[in-house]
Design a protein that fits this description.
Length: about 375
């Protein structure tokens, strides 16, 4: 009997396959029609549009492959699943778009130096108009499905479909103007089409390549997690939140939670367990929290924390002091704490010196250890 997770994965895979088959079939038909129209008219713009549709068909094949692989369950060799195949698939789509754009640009640049007026006819214009309508419908379908299923490759394909609509519309208008005025615009239209598709390919490659390389997660995800955890009165603070992306349906987060040191381990565990479960139910992200015991009722620590916060904020706006610990090592007091700073801050020497001076007024002989961590979820 299948688990709920496996049943959901199978449902997603079937819908991805259906979407990819629809896209593959439509793009192959449009490519064939446009290649025929281009051969009859000699239009470089229509040839470029046909090549675009053919590359889209190749991209659909990549999505079909990812649909079979990315939703496979975890196994010994892939304990976090196969979800990143989605990003590989989207990256393949981006490379195909990029390669096709370079080819169109080469032909367009050559044609600009050897201008020829294409022999346009009613069939050519009809094919372009049908393509615009069909690709816009496909764009709406892919975007809706991609967002609902959380499929990055399908969203990438929808963006490409929209770019096709714009490109084909510009080609159609330009060809009509050229036919009406006698001005040879075909090669320039081909150049414009190539540049637009080149940018689209670059955008898709950059976005999905960044995910594969471990780029920064969506800040809204982190903020949503923090908002949920702020509702728990026994969690006194959250820091060092990290989100690891293993594909559209597998994200794992880790964080440090400050709790009152006077609580029993059982009490703290119960709170953390509840919070982790709520985060998963609300976001689908598996959260694992490390407990940091703090002393919220220690008056000297409380007063020092207020002064540290004020000093840090005065030097680096939006910084935050947290996780203060007082320990002993080699018969010497040690004060340890973390300072969360914005991602844009690189030089912390002045801040560190000022914070150590504050600690020195409360613990004159203590060793001070400060750790700086970046805040990727700052508003």
């Amino acid at each position: 009997m299948k688990s709920k997770e496996q049943a959901a994965a199978d449902s997603i895979r079937k819908q991805l396959i259906r979407s990819a088959v629809i896209s593959l079939s439509l793009n192959l038909v449009l490519a064939a029609m446009k290649f025929l129209a281009a051969r009859m008219s000699g239009s470089l713009a229509v040839t470029g549009d046909a090549a675009n549709n053919f590359s889209d068909a190749c991209g659909s094949l990549a999505v079909l492959l990812s649909a079979y692989i990315s939703t496979k369950p975890e196994d010994r060799e892939h304990p976090y699943g196969h979800g990143r195949m989605e990003y590989v698939s989207a990256l393949v789509v981006g490379f195909l778009i990029f390669t096709m754009a370079v080819d169109v640009l080469k032909n367009a640049i050559h044609a600009i130096s050897h201008p020829e007026q294409p022999e346009l006819n009613g069939f050519c214009f009809s094919v372009m108009l049908i393509s615009i309508i069909a690709k816009f419908i496909l764009f709406l379908y892919q975007r809706s499905k991609g967002k609902r299923l959380g499929s990055d490759s399908l969203v990438a394909e929808s963006r490409d479909s929209l770019a096709d609509v714009v490109t084909s519309a510009l080609m159609l208008i330009g060809l009509w103007i050229g036919l009406a005025t006698g001005v040879v615009l075909d090669s320039w239209l081909g150049l414009l089409a190539g540049l637009m598709v080149l940018w689209e390919g670059y955008s898709v490659c950059r976005e999905n390549g960044n995910r594969l390389l471990g780029g920064s997660p969506d800040p809204t995800q982190g903020r949503k997690i923090l908002k949920i955890l702020e509702q728990y009165p026994d969690i006194l603070g959250i820091h060092d939140l990290q989100i690891h992306d293993y594909g559209p349906w597998k994200r794992i987060a880790i964080a440090h939670a400050e709790v009152d040191a006077s609580q029993t381990v059982l009490q703290a565990h119960h709170t953390i367990d509840q919070a982790e479960q709520e985060v998963f139910e609300e976001t689908g992200i598996q959260l694992c929290m490390h407990i940091d015991p703090v002393l919220p009722d220690d008056d000297r620590i409380k007063q020092m924390l207020l002064e540290l916060e004020s000093t840090a904020e005065g030097i680096v706006p939006r910084s935050h002091v947290h996780d203060i610990h007082e320990t002993r090592h080699n018969q010497q007091n040690v004060i340890m704490f973390d300072v969360k700073i914005p991602e844009s801050i690189h030089d912390t020497k002045t801040l560190e010196k000022s914070l150590k001076a504050v600690v020195g007024r409360y613990f004159a002989e203590a060793e001070v250890i400060i750790r700086f961590d970046l805040d990727y979820f700052d508003e």
